[in-house]
Amino acid sequence: MSVSVEGVEERIEGENCADKEENVIEVDRDAISLDLTRTRLMRIEGFEFLHKIESLCLRWNLLKKIEGLDTLTTLTYLDLYDNQIEKIENLSTLVNLETLDLSFNRIIKIENLEKLTNLKTLYLVHNKISKIEGLEKVRFRRIAHVTLDIVRDDHYSCIYSTSESDPLVNLEYLELGDNRIKKIENLDTNCNIVRLFLGANQIRKIENLDNLKKIEVLSLPANAITVVESDKRAEADMLQWLRESAIQLKHIRRYVNPFVLLQGVSSLSTLREIYLAQNGVQSTSGLENLSNLEILDFNYNRLNKVQGIRHLKKLTDFWAKNNKLEDWQVFDELVELPYLNLVYLENNPFSEVQDYRAKAIRLLPQITRLDSTQCRDPSLLKAPVLV
């Protein structure tokens, strides 16, 4: 394969082809964006002429090494998703980079990112990373001058010249899902993280997030977190963290974790959406102070009763399909929610009766959709009035 620019070809090595023909791609030397997805690139080279490039996409290729990017200092977006890269390297000159996607590679360590001080979004999904590191502040110390008092050999003085690189303080979105991480750690200096995704790892405890004062989305699906009702010590630890950290969460997502009941969110009054699908939740308790909730997801859990949610007057969505609800008591709570629009209640014991749908629609005059199907014309409903 080769890249042709105004009559000059910048050669890029491709995979061996039976017909020995080259695939020539015309590229404007003033291009701001370049997408070479699935072009079977085996090496990054020949891009030196791109002096204005801001976005470079090299997804789904055969790249084994990050190289040949030193001159592309104008890059703000670099996508190397789904290659064969084993190491993060040769990125130090890309100081304007804001988004970096290295998902679906073979990376085993987070490293060599300290120069990317403008980085806001980092994707490292589905690699072989076992530890969160390389994102914290890096400190370098150099001895500039040493004096030794010969008369008093027990006394000496050292003058240090200390240089500190800026941490990745602008990092807002960090995705480390589907790796081998066992502990949440080394995020203390990344205080501007808003969205943190650590799903499908081996994490057993929620910890070391105290400095993430701006976090809004915390996603921990498919880990090994074992905070259960009988584990009072672990439960107390979670309560302590959630209350003292002052994290302004707006969303919590946990899937496929053995929670028996959710506790410790009562002080997070800014919460708007909670996603708890595919856990072992048995109770809706712990939501008493979350008056700003709009979406509440309990799909695929072990709920046998719904209570303590009638005060959630801003709730628009209540999802509780595939639980163990045996009676119609849930409607005593839901009927009190004036903005309720979408409800999932199918595949519960009580919903197996023949007239379930007709009765549910009658008991909830404010909803427009039941179990994904429209049941009323939204235009015919009066706007709710909160007293």
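Above is the first protein from milestone M3; the second protein from the same milestone is given next.
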Amino acid sequence: MPQRFRGNKVTAYGGTMAFEIQYSGTGPVNGEPLVVLKGNGITLVHRKKDQYGLFQPDRPVPVTIETYEQSYERENGSPASREDLLMVLADLDTFLIRATHVPNQVSTSSFLNSKMLQRKF
């Protein structure tokens, strides 16, 4: 992962991350987390509540996620606390965006705003 996405990202709290996903393929959309953040031994995940209707093949889908604890949960499904998110952001070492959306996927592309982990003041 590029260095600009790692390390102390506490200033991202309260901001948004935005990216666009487009894929080609068939089959039901999987329910795996759309985003995974790891840091300080804590893993948080984000799932789009409406991802089964949101993602359609061969159509670009803009995704915006607010960087608040309400947008994330722990791996076990329990809600993330403010402390959890701030601990992850204090030493972010892994930032993943799901690339496989359907079982018979042929291709995928994502456009990521490189300023997504920065809060605008």
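Note on the second protein: DSSP finds two helices and seven strands in the chain.
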